[in-house]
Structures are given as C-alpha cells and as structure tokens.
Amino acid sequence: MTAQATDLILIDGVQHNLFTNPLDAYREKYRRDMIFLEDHPNTGCWRGYVAEWEIDEGRLFLLKVVGNISYKGRGSDYNIFHDKIPATLSEIFGPVSGRVPATWYSGELRVPLGEMVEYVHAGYGSRYPKYLLISVENGVCGEQKYVSHEEYKELMAEQDQDSSNNVEIKMDYRSVKKAFKADRKYWSRRLGKSRWSEGFIASWVLIIFVMLLIGSLMIWG
Predict the structure, then answer these.
(1) Which of 11, 135, 151, 194 could lock 142 by a disulfide, CB 3.0 to 4.6 Å apart?
(2) Rounded Cα distance, 105 and 112, in Å
(3) Burial class (CB in 10 A: 0-12, 13-18, 19+), 136
(4) Which of the two residues, 79 and 204, has the higher pLDDT score?
(5) Segments of 7-155 assigned E as strands
(6) Torsion over CA of 170, 174, 176 and 178, rounded to 10 degrees?
(7) pLDDT class for 164, splitting at 50, 70, 90?
C-alpha cells in the first residue's frame, strides 16, 4: 500500500501530522451512504479526504475537510463520480457555523513528533523519533503518553486496527458497479448514442482505477 497523506492536528498552536482518522468513525456510525473522493484519483490518499483537527481546552474539534462527497443509493440518475460535491462541514453534519466537536469519537490519537527518520512506502509506516498518544472518550481528551518508535511498534503490534484508526477505506463494490451503469446512462444522455463512448471511455479508466483500489485493499486489509 502506498504511503498515505495524513490528517493534520493543532496542539498548543503547533500543527502536526495525525496517524489516526477520527472522521472515519463518524462515517461508519452515522453516514455510511457517504463516499469521500478527491478531485482526481490519488493512491496517496485512499480515504479520499484530508481532515484538519484541533485540541482546545481538552476537547477534539474538526476544523475542515479537504475533499469531495458523493452518496450511495441515490438512484440510477445519480453518478458518484460526476455528482460529487465539496466536503464542507455543513454537508457532512448539517448546518454549522464553525468547528465541530468530535463527540462521536472514542479512541486514540497518534501524533508523530520530530523529523522523519525513515520513509516507508506503506500507509502510516514511516518512522519518527517519538510519538504522542492521546486517549479520547466522546471527543474529550484524556491521558497523554510519549513513546519511542520501538515502543510505538510494539503497541501497534498488540492492537487490532479498527475502522476509525485505519487509513484503508473499503469502498462498497456494489456502489462502484452501480456507478458504472449510471455512468453509461449519463454519457449516453449527454452526448447522444453516436458520441457517448468518448466520455464513457474516460470514465471507464476511472472505474478501472477504483477496482484496482478495491483489489489492493482486499490484499492488504
């Protein structure tokens, strides 16, 4: 698996990479109809977005999401690739005017510290001198612990990676299959029967990429 773009988190005014993806837990719990997609296919960000977070007065907040959203189950006229829209906080959570408290999230935030010691071309596998681990319960931050890379590796080996702490987003095969059919209808209507194949071929390339993505996740997941 390709090395992945991380989420970002502000701690005491300093921005860090984040080796955890708390937004995945929200999607799994409340919005399984939602699919995140970047502007263009990117093997360096399988989950389809980058989220920015902040810890303020002991609470975890979501500040921003960079990416797009599409939806499953919207009917044959809806195409998950062509009909995607920006992943604003209001689109994800309903009308909001600012940052969103991450009350849905309970787990562990994993923050690499210092300069990268070794690049690893797989997930969040690159090596750092030390890590800050922060326990979170319903969006409230608790114990903080600093560990070395060796200690971090041991902890990761002991823990099962659940969907909220895993950078691999397993897309629904049936949704991709429906998107394929909807895509053919989309271009047929837009270009006419004699010309629909031009646009369809371009979209088929994207479909193949997504299928390769799914195959990769089945192997590595």
Answers:
(1) 135
(2) 20
(3) buried
(4) 79
(5) 7-11, 14-18, 34-37, 49-56, 59-71, 85-86, 100-101, 107-113, 130-137, 140-148
(6) -160
(7) very low
34 near 94, Cβ under 8 Å?
Answer: no
Smallest CA-to-CA distance from 166 within 46, 55, 71 is with 46
pLDDT at 163 over 60: no
Distance CA 79, CA 202 (A): 14
pTM of the model as a whole: 0.70
- What tokens appear for 196 in the block? 């629909």
Matching residue, tokens 């750092």: 128
Average pLDDT, the chain: 80
Longest CA pairwise span in the chain (Å): 64
Q: What is the pLDDT of residues 47-94, one digit of tens each?
A: 999 999 999 999 999 999 999 998 876 766 777 777 889 999 999 999
Q: Is the dihedral of CA 198, 200, 206, 208 positive or negative?
A: negative
Distance CA 85, CA 37 (A): 9
The four Cα atoms 148, 153, 159, 160 give a dihedral, to 10 degrees, of: 140
Residue with the bigger pLDDT between 182 and 69: it is 69
Nearest CA to 62 out of 36, 24, 30 is that of: 24
